[in-house]
Specification:
This protein has 703 residues and is of the alpha+beta class. The chain has 22 helices and 21 strands. Helix 2 packs across helix 10, helix 4 packs across helix 5 (142-158) and helix 16 (473-483) crosses helix 19.
Amino acid sequence: MKRFKRFLRWLLLLTLVAALLGLLAIYLVYRHYEPQLPEVATLRDVRFQVPLKIYSRDGKLIANFGEARRFPAAIDEVPDVLKQAFIATEDERFYQHPGVDYQGMARVGWEFVRAGGEFGSGGSTITMQLARNFFLSPERKLERKLKEILLALKIERELSKDEILGLYLNKIFLGNRAYGIAAAAQVYYGKALAELTLPEAALIAGLPKAPSDLNPVQNPQRSLERRNYVLSRMLEVGYLDAATYAAAVATPETAHIHDLPIELEAPYVAEMARLEAEQLLGAEEALTGGYSVYTSVDSNLQLAANDALRKALSDYEERHGYRGPEAHVALAGATSDEPAVHVLKGLSGTGGLLPALVVAVTAESADLLLQDGSTGALTFDEARWARRYISADERGPAPKSLLDLLQPGDVIRVRALESGLWRLTQIPTVQGTLVALDPENGGIRALVGGFSFGRSKFNRATQSERNPGSSFKPFVYSAAFNKGFTAASIVNDAPIVFEIPGVEKAWRPQNDNQTFSGPIRLREAMVRSKNLVSIRVLDAIGVPYARRYIERFGFDPKRLPENLSLALGTASAPPLTMARGFAVFANGGFRVDPFLIERIDNSQGEVAYSANPARACATCRSALPRSSIWIRLPTKYLPGTRPLRTRRRPQRAPAAPAGHAPRRRAATGAARHRRAQRLPDHLADDGRGQARYRPQGDGARPQ
């Protein structure tokens, strides 16, 4: 008996010593690693990597840029069923333990001994996983595990349980570039968090263990098994009753990839906005900072621009003939023929033109198999245009039936009609662009850089250096009007020859229709786009003067030729620059700078950037009462135009004293300008105040 008591005393003493040594070891470990632990306070201001979103000015989503799909959600927005699914699967005692579940840690310690110094899975609480995801590496070593435990305890002291759970649910990777539960709900189900059902919530909660292997896209069967395991854990913990569990397990799985719904098709606009946002914010910050870019594009105008350009190019294609099917495959007999369907699915829809497989064809109609597995019909009336393409200027005879155009196995392009039928079409070989500009402030209201961004990312609205041709003549005439010409000035539309030094052959420009009208007023010459009149006018005012004047419309002087061909539009200018130039005519003479981004909001909804463009207002004076103060607008302007200046209503001059003759009013600035202006030598007054062209010599070329 005495030996037993002595043994118990020694055992108690050893236990006490062991406990003290254990506490000392914990203290020493804490003192060793505590300086290395990061500040938990940073979690309160954590910034998640959120993609860049591009919107129209009326809030329609145009594009979403970024490697990670993440849409942070507040913990109050997370439905209870989703919280319960994660807690039951990952950490059922989450709301009871202080950050470390000692029961789980005992199990992990035994596994650590058995594994020879490496930790297996399990044992980590949600708080510990949060510490690892934010601050630590994923390596399975004792040192990392100790830091993870200490960090979890530290986090629990500074953050509430709901704050910890919210950070965890927004941080975790859930496969297919989805980070956080809101992104997973969108990617796998195309839903918001509040719309998730119990089986869908259970599937998402089962993904953190192995997001790349267990997601329903890569491995549907394993994903289904994992989902049912999560449901069983919810039943064990008490979140579900037996009937609800049975119904959820019996529900078939419907998850598949859902792209973020794009509300407005404007890919060229999106790419321009992305590049500009990266310049303003920095590439990394722009793509991960959760910014929302609001462009100046109007959604209705953009849709109209898309339709207008595509229709114009498709009409051009139909006028020039049909080039035949894109491909031909041998059909085994049924619409489910695997090689044929494989070829069809390898093609993509382009500008609303969908690939279709001709299954059967008669003289009047053809049966089609579409890419999504549906069927359709093509009638001969919707293919009568398809005369065989021979060259840009030649077509073959008109087809007499569909049998002249198609045969089973042909892969063609069709366009949906409002009647439910389909129209035969083809992908255009020509390209086009359209840009619409607000003349008052330069905001881009619509922009289409080509027929299809997927086939060609070259933005013809901003990157193409094309010759504007006759559309450039208004700028030449504007320079002439500023030099003394008027719309009623008469110029001789007659043949003209230029002898160029060093060139054997003389330059003999011609009008488009090879006809001449003789003396003609400038207003009519401009309407009929007379080349020879434009050249004579430019020669009269001088090329150097015209170039200096036209530069002020926003044209690059390096791309304006220093010869008379300038009158024929041989300059190089992107369509956006042309639109900027014409905006000067539309707004009363003010040059505006085109811009695309109106504002950028940060992830908190605060304005991080605002364009605040200068605004031209040619009608402001007439709109304001006479007693108002006119405010000068900060805009650039052209010769012959004046900006609004700050001035008050002019006061009436005081009456002259008795015995003094009234003084004559001084001439206004405009009157002095007219008085000092002298008509060029080749212009003469016709007696009615109009400038008339005076031919020099034989009238071929003014001196």
